[in-house]
Amino acid sequence: HHVCFPIQVDSRDKPNRIAVCRNSSKSGMLLATPSRYHPGDRLELSFRIAVEQRDQAHVVGTVLRVFDDPSPDAGWWRRLVAVRFEQVLETIEPLLSAEEPRQAAIYRAI
């Protein structure tokens, strides 16, 4: 699902970092972040997919790969980090499905 939302990222060496979700599924996410991570790093992610989501979701995942966003507009968010969740999050699938068309409509209007 192509959705964007802020994420708090905590790791053993880098607590309280921030990222933006670029796309997500029930088994993983692609994050854009100014922080440096490496394949194999274990990350704890906390997020709300939609404003009306009452409680934050919390998930632990492992970095699979890291690469730079080639876009000249990437700025601080140039590092892309692919994360696989340790457990599949079935509960976020309906939230992602509902949020994706809402965000697509906003981007079309811009």
Shape descriptor: globular
Main sheet characteristics: 6 strands, antiparallel, barrel
Number of helices, counting only DSSP H or I runs of 4 residues or more: 1
User: What's the mean pLDDT score?
Assistant: 91
Q: Biggest sheet, strands in spatial order?
A: 1-2-3-6-5-4
Q: What fraction of residues sit in β-strands?
A: 35-45%
Order of helices and strands: EEEEEEH
Distance between the termini: 20 Å
> How would you classify the helix and strand content by structural class?
alpha+beta
Regions with pLDDT < 50 over 5+ consecutive residues? Answer: none
Share of helix, binned: 10-25%
Evaluate the radius of gyration: 14 Å
Give the beta-strand count.
6
Q: Layout of helices and strands, plus pairs?
A:
Blueprint: E1 6-10, E2 17-24, E3 28-33, E4 42-47, E5 57-68, E6 79-85, H1 93-109
Antiparallel strand pairs: 1-2, 1-4, 2-3, 3-6, 4-5, 5-6
Structural commentary:
The two termini are 20 Å apart. This protein is an alpha+beta fold and 110 residues long. Strand 1 (6-10) and strand 2 (17-24) form a beta hairpin. It is globular and about 35 Å long. It is built from one helix and six strands. It has one helix at 93-109, and strands at residues 6-10, 17-24, 28-33, 42-47, 57-68, 79-85. The mean pLDDT is 91. It has a six-stranded antiparallel beta barrel.
